Amino acid sequence: MREHAPDTKIIAIWINGSPFEATTEMSVAAALMRYDNMQTRQSISGQPRFAVCGMGVCQECRVRINGQPHKLACQEYCRSGMVINTGTTGLGV
User: What's the rounded Cα separation, in Å, for the pair 78 and 84?
Assistant: First the structure.
């Protein structure tokens, strides 16, 4: 396991109903990649979507965080107890 900055904390978050260990320095998009969920939502035509630009411009990384829809996974950092739902669960964006 790689070393973390001294002020980085390992925290527990929930991704699509499953517990996951993340760090406070990790974006939600990075946590989803480590969780092996490369889909944040589905397009209107049913195509899988994930972060493209990594800076919030494309809006492809929208997820539901703590019940709030349309949060940008690439712009949100993981926080302890965070509940993330992607468009793959039925709770979606």
Answer: 10
